[in-house]
Write a structure and sequence with these properties.
Radius of gyration of chain B: 13 Å
Helix content of chain B: under 10%
Number of strands of chain B: 11
Radius of gyration of chain A: 14 Å
Distance between the termini of chain B: 37 Å
Shape of chain B: globular
Structural class of chain B: mainly beta
Largest sheet of chain A: 6 strands, mixed
Largest sheet of chain B: 7 strands, mixed
Oligomer: heterodimer
Shape of chain A: globular
Strand content of chain B: over 45%
Structural class of chain A: mainly beta
Order of helices and strands of chain B: EEEEEEEEEEE
Helix content of chain A: under 10%
Number of helices of chain B: 0
Distance between the termini of chain A: 41 Å
Number of strands of chain A: 12
Largest interface: A-B, 25 and 27 residues
Order of helices and strands of chain A: EEEEEEEEEEEE
């Protein structure tokens, strides 16, 4: 079974600075998908960024980028120019590859609570 | 268009009562997932549907939990004889297609408290 580990229960960053959230995962599959979700105080779940394991290029979405290290099974999220609205719980998630009757469920880590200080 | 909706948003029930949680996915979305999120944890998979067919229910904790999606749209998660340990946020998500790398869109959740 796949597992996702977020080793940082809490992180803090100054507004306009950069912060990196860590995520490692364990899988025997060679192809899969990785995601970062944001859960603000409203408790919505919002997709931040997605990475396909077969792609060597790291995904980027505006101020959000990932450092995907497949061999190390590491998938960290970098937030540049942090804003007050970035304050939230961030969850890393894993999804199995397509086909073969896969269950497309997401397996989540326990989350990292990010505080942004003005 | 409207996102995933869930009702009720909050439910307080006494131990031993049955509860039904509703999920209305985004129109046209084929796949529907149920997750449970305990306080301070990430969501955990319960079950999922493609159209009206329940494809996997391996995450349901025990036989007090059941789910249905009879017409391939709205889904209901039912918990019978609720216990205090069932207290959690129950989240529904829908996805446009089966498989592929389509995003799962989450609803706002139902906060269940069993007293």
């Amino acid at each position: 079974a796949q597992t996702v580990t977020q080793s940082q229960p809490e992180m803090s960053v100054q507004e306009a600075e950069t912060v990196t959230l860590s995520c490692t995962y364990d899988t025997s599959e060679s192809d899969y998908y990785l995601f970062w979700y944001k859960q603000p105080p409203s408790r919505q779940m919002i997709l931040v960024i997605r990475q396909e394991a077969y792609k060597q290029q790291n995904a980027t979405e505006n101020r959000f980028s990932v450092n995907f290290q497949k061999a190390a099974k590491s998938f960290s999220l970098k937030i540049s120019d942090s804003q007050l609205g970035d304050a939230a719980m961030y969850f890393c998630a894993y999804r199995s590859p397509d086909g073969g009757g896969s269950n497309y469920k997401l397996t989540f880590g326990k989350g990292t609570l990010l505080t942004v200080n003005p | 268009g409207a996102g995933v909706s869930q009702s009720p948003r909050y439910k307080v029930t006494k131990r031993g009562q049955d509860v039904a949680l509703r999920c209305d996915p985004i129109s046209g979305h084929v796949s529907l997932y149920w997750y449970r999120q305990a306080l301070g944890q990430g969501p955990e998979f319960l079950t999922y549907f493609n159209y009206e067919a329940q494809q996997d229910k391996s995450g349901l904790p025990n036989d007090r939990f059941s789910a249905e999606r009879p017409e391939g749209s709205i889904s209901t998660l039912t918990i019978q004889r609720t216990e205090q340990r069932d207290s959690a946020m129950y989240r529904c998500a829908s996805s446009l297609e089966i498989g592929q790398a389509y995003e799962q869109y989450f609803g706002p959740g139902t906060r269940l408290t069993v007293t």
